[in-house]
Amino acid sequence: MSKLIPHTLLSDIPDLYETEGQLDPILKVKLFTPDSCFTWYVIELSKSDLNICYGYVVGLDSELGYFTLEELESIHGPLGLAIERDLSFKPTKFSTIKKSEHDSTC
User: Fold this and answer.
1) Cα-flanking dihedrals φ and ψ of residue 17, to 5°?
2) Which of 18, 8, 37 is nearest to 104 (CA)?
3) Coil, strand or helix at 80
4) HEC string of 5-37?
5) Model confidence at 2, in pLDDT bands (50, 70, 90)?
6) Which residues 6+ apart lie within 8 Å of 50 measured at CB?
7) How many other C-beta atoms are found inside a 10 Å radius of the C-beta of residue 67?
8) What does the alpha-carbon distance between residue 47 and residue 11 come to, in Å, rounded to a whole number?
9) Which of 42, 47, 82, 83 could form a disulfide with 15 if both were Cys (CB 3.0 to 4.6 A apart)?
């Protein structure tokens, strides 16, 4: 199980493909590099392996796509800091985040 998403949040995150077809899905969890500009917003999480996520990634480009928690746990920013979960983040509609981020990139 991932250190990035606690067990208490798992039931709030839809399974993979559960939000397919929704035009404005809810971003459930925000993960970020404290020493860089990359951010991962989790929309869905595979209930079978608790590793594969579908979400919105903001970095060099901004895009919807798949990523794994295992990979994120292995990444460290330029100052050696690990990826963290934003504890103050509240589930938010995709359109709200996209608008507020203005598709910001690194």
Assistant:
1) 70, 0
2) 37
3) coil
4) CCHHHHCCCCCCCCCCCCCCCEECEEEECCCCC
5) confident
6) 1, 2, 5, 10, 69
7) 16
8) 9
9) 47
Residue 72: what residue type? L
Q: Which residue has the tokens 């979400």?
A: 55
Amino acid at residue number 9: L
Burial class (CB in 10 A: 0-12, 13-18, 19+), 80: exposed
Provide φ and ψ at 74, rounded to 5°: -90, -10
User: Is the four-CA dihedral 102, 88, 86, 92 of positive or negative sign?
Assistant: negative
Please report, for the chain, the start and end positions of each structural domain, with discontinuous segments joined by +: 31-94
Q: CA 1 to CA 49: how far, in whole Å?
A: 9
pLDDT digits (tens, 9 = 90+) for 8-59: 999 999 999 999 999 999 999 999 999 999 999 999 999 999 999 999 999 9
